[in-house]
Amino acid sequence: MALSRTTSAPLFAEGASGTLRLVVYLVLAAVLMASDRHGHHLLRLRAAAHLAVEPLYRLAALPADAARSLRLAVADRQALTRENAELKQALLLAQARLNRLGVLSEQNQRLQSLLEVQRSLGLAVQLARLVDVQLDTVRHRVVLNVGSAEGVSVGQSVLDASGVMGQVIEVLPHTSTVMLVTDARHAIPVTLERTGLRTIAHGTGALDRLELPNIPVSADVAPGDKLVSSGLGGTFPAGFPVGEVTAVRADQNGMFAAATVRPAAALDRSGEVLVLRELADPVGPPEAAPESGPPAAAAGPVERAP
Amino acid sequence: MSARQRSHAWLFLASIAAAYVLQLLPLPAALAPLKPYWLALVLLYWALEEPERVGLGRAFLCGLVGDVIHGEILGEQALRLTIFTFIVLRFRARLRFFPMWQQALAVLALLANDRVVLLMTRAFAGDPMPPPGFWLAPLAGVAVWPWWFLLLDDLRARLRVHEA
Predict the structure, then answer these.
(1) DSSP state, A268?
(2) Strand bridging mode A157-160 / A140-144
(3) In sequence order, what are the residues at sequence separation of 6 or more whose Cβ sits closer than 8 angstroms to the Cβ of residue B82?
(4) Mind listing the pLDDT tens digit for each residue in B88-122?
(5) C-alpha–C-alpha distance, residues B98 and A41, integer Å
(6) pLDDT surpassing 80 at residue B86
(7) What is the Cα–Cα distance from B68 to B46, expressed in whole angstroms?
């Protein structure tokens, strides 16, 4: 050790001063690091310096850019074809997604119109969703996703945005069954909007048809007449659209006329429905059977035919 | 002599600039941990061959510029390069006359030490432990070192011939 010192005296001297300088620089670096980490006053210096070294970044990025463009230039036909196919697939997927979005937006619109109904009615209603549909030649039932736990009870009316759908006939804790107005066993008291004629619309078992039997032949019923619920019988509140008369014809025995009605509610399309909270009459009869005859008191302009 | 000094000074600056660019060079993610510490390799070369060009002050300055360019914390590379250069200058006489494989081992030790210093500064700053790939860079540096050395030596020799 001593030998090396004597033989390399200048080197050693440099080393000794070097150690001192090393310590100075290390302390300087440490101070810089600490001040940069804690106070961020060196940030601005770095920002300014970054502007100056921007070209350096560009220069460093050049090889990568060149490599990328080179790869693009020599990409063979097969790869391009494959990429094309993949892109097409992706486009298809995106299209499908877009379609689903369209469905969602339609649903949104439907819900909004339902909300609109709710607001304009000023009625307490409950939004429900169809979970099941049971349709055969006589039974027209749908199952809703609300039940007694949600406050639904037998006899409540069910509406959609455009009209009366039916009434609740059975309630389970979390589902309820609704008989649609087109069920063959269903009847709903209605009023002709134009003339005020009261009658009863019976279900037919066909989803697009209601039947008005036993209309007096002299009664003024014409295709295009709107039917609204009359509110009699206590189950359905008054004034909701039920349907529109499409055809009037003579009864089988010629004593009465009969009309065919197209339901106003979108019975085969509705996904979301409103369950009317309040019952018009708490003990109202589930079916309006007694009003089977022609109206006795003619409040409207229609007189009973002899 | 003066012209040669000047041309070597240009080579020195050019090599340092090249080191900065190489350090910035974007690499594929798989190769990124293998990026050697070019700046240290440049300083190592010049410290071995022309030590009068590389002092602690210059190393510190180079490190500062590197910090600014890389956008890491200011002073980190300055600290690393100062320590690196100090060790190289201390053992310069021995390093110079090592055979290439021994020199490569020494370079490995130097670069590994540099990584330890970096790890320490990071640990002080409260950063978590780096991934294992962190330790691959010194190996890459050793793999590159002989070619880097030969390249710079060749360039230097050419400049000399050109003047002669």
Answers:
(1) T
(2) unpaired
(3) A22, A25, A26, A29, B56, B59, B60, B63
(4) 988 888 888 888 888 889 999 999 999 999 888 88
(5) 46
(6) yes
(7) 22
Please say whether the beta carbons of B39 and B16 come within 8 A. yes
pTM across the whole model = 0.49
CB contact at 8 A, B137 and B34: yes
Taking each continuous run of H as one helix and of E as one strand, the counts in chain A are 4, 12
CA distance A70 to chain B (A): 16
φ, ψ of residue A109 to 5 degrees: the values are -65, -45
pLDDT score for B111: 92
Asked if residues A257 and A251 have their Cβ atoms less than 8 Å apart, the reply is yes
Mean pLDDT of B26-39: 80
Cα separation, A30 vs A26, in Å, equals 6
What's the ipTM?
0.78
Quick one: pLDDT at residue A304? 44
User: Between B24, B25, B121, which is nearest A33 by CB?
Assistant: B121
Q: To 10 degrees, the CA torsion angle through B98, B102, B108, B114?
A: -30
Contact between B26 and A61 using a beta-carbon 8 Å cutoff: yes
Rounded Cα–Cα distance for residues A46 and B143 (Å): 33
A24: exposed, middle or buried (C-beta count within 10 Å: 0-12, 13-18, 19+)? middle
Q: Which of B25, B57, B73 sits opposite A36 (nearest CB)?
A: B73
Question: What is the chain B residue with the closest CA to A27?
Answer: B79
CB within 8 Å: B24 and A60: yes
Q: Which pLDDT value is given to residue A142?
A: 87
A33 burial level (CB within 10 Å; 0-12, 13-18, 19+): buried
Q: Which whole-number Å values give the CA distances from A195 to A2, A60, A246, A254, A260, in the listed order?
A: 128, 87, 16, 22, 17
C-alpha A129/C-alpha A271 separation (Å) is 6
CA distance A240 to A191: 10
Interface of B with A (CB under 8 A): 20-22, 24-26, 55-57, 60, 63-64, 68-69, 71, 73-76, 78-79, 82-83, 86, 89-90, 93, 121, 125
Report how many Cβ contacts below 8 Å link chain A to chain B. 83
Tens of pLDDT, residue by residue over A40-89, are 666 667 677 767 777 777 787 788 788 878 877 777 777 888 888 899 88
Given a cut of 70, the residues of chain A with pLDDT beneath it are: 1-17, 39-44, 46, 50, 118-123, 137-138, 278-306
